[in-house]
Amino acid sequence: KICGVCGDKALGFNFDAISCESCKAFFRRNAPKGLGYFKCPYDEKCKMDLSNRRFCKRCRLKKCFEIGMRKEYILSEEEKAQKRQKI
Q: Which residue spans adopt a coiled-coil conformation according to this UniProt entry (predicted)?
């Protein structure tokens, strides 16, 4: 399996799309802020791959949304606590 965002090795579905652990964590931290929070220094023409995925947050987040990652699937702190109690 290959990450739909950066092309790295993916372990499975995260937020309804196949992605690597790095992009999963990036999406969890940045999706609630939205695309308007970031600016692209390269006119939004960045090529996302393993070597340059850290250089432009806007284009990386945009790619996350394009492959189908859904911010509705990010758990709130209360939901995380409830999930831990069940385990």
A: none
